[in-house]
Amino acid sequence: MSEEQKNEQVVDLTKVTPPTQPKSILVSREEQKNYESESQTEDEEDDEEDDIDNENEPLPTEYPGTVLPDNHPQEIDADVDLASGFPDDTEYIDLIHLKINSLEDLHLERFNKIEALCLRQNLLTSISAVKHLPAETMEELDFYDNRIDHISKSVAQLVNLKNLDLSFNKIKNIKHIETLTKLENLYFVQNKIKEIKNLETLQNLKNLELGGNKIEVISETLDKLVNLQQLWLGKNRIAKFENMNNLVNLRVLSIQSNRLTKIEGLDHLINLEELYLSHNGIEKIENLENNTKLQVLDVTSNRLTKLENMSHLINLTDFWCSYNKISNFDDIAKQLGKLPELDTVYFEGNPVQLQNPTAYRRKIKLNLGPSLAKIDATYIRD
């Protein structure tokens, strides 16, 4: 903006009363407070930790100045109108980022053939109204990024669900899903869950995502999910591998950003293909003798000082080892040099790279086999 334009907008605040902001159907802060206080009515007795409500946080600083009216405000339909455009026989409803705070106002009872409901990025605090959905047809429920603090018992009646996403909410306890025995994909990313429980009956589960919670222990519950193929536990507080002996079908295990210090307890994961262990306190690569199907191994940002116990991983294509303390090219050659499928390696931030960055790439290439195509995200030139 030019100085002339700035000067033209200067207003004498002593003579002008700031105009009233245009009224819109957008939810106000006060309305939302009232709604949230009224919606805390369901079963919450087993929640152990009290949260500090978002509304108690200090409001953003307001700087002095005149509020200029918006002559073309963007309005969002009231909740009651948002689903009105869908015919009664709709099979898929998708209402994303629309500030919906009342599931009841959508009148879901009229959709008797619906199979999937997606209400991502809204303001929902309660999902008890799912009781109006037809249990015989519902297969997918997506409440990613709302303000839900507990799982309603009404969810239990949706026994044909295959996909349930409750990520990025405020849930503390896994409950009321024991009857959902057809679930294949279950997402609880970024909640406030402390314990893995009430999952034993979900024998068809293939993908379980629990990253970004407060989990400290891999409980015995997990060991009963024998058909699990992907398990995501990143950004928790887990200090030890345990209770995974029966997960023989597991292909992907992500346990990044936890409190691990040792690789152990993976002996029975004979079909494991991808193992993500970055940002832990691991000091040694070990106990992978039975994991010969590994294709991706990520040990970025740990405490490794040497490479060892890897020469048997003949299916390895990607080895990510940035930001450790690897200083010996001979170890790299011995452990990785004869791996026939190795395509990509990362050693950035290790002494082998920091001490001689000019010759580093050339030495890596000389010490590894002809299959190598990429070093630290950069393709090798012929």
Automatic annotation (TrEMBL):
Record has Repeat as a keyword: yes
Compositional bias per record (Acidic residues), positions renumbered to this chain: 39-56
Tree of life domain: Eukaryota
Keyword Repeat: yes
Listed SUPFAM superfamilies: L domain-like
Disordered as annotated region, ranges: 1-74
Alphabetical list of Pfam families matching this protein: LRR_4
Transmembrane segments: none
InterPro entries: Leu-rich_rpt (IPR001611), Leu-rich_rpt_4 (IPR025875), Leu-rich_rpt_typical-subtyp (IPR003591), LRR_dom_sf (IPR032675), SDS22/Internalin_LRR (IPR050836)
Coiled coil (residue ranges): none
PROSITE patterns per UniProt: LRR
UniProtKB keywords: Leucine-rich repeat, Repeat
UniProt protein name: Protein phosphatase 1 regulatory subunit Sds22p
Protein's organism: [Candida] anglica
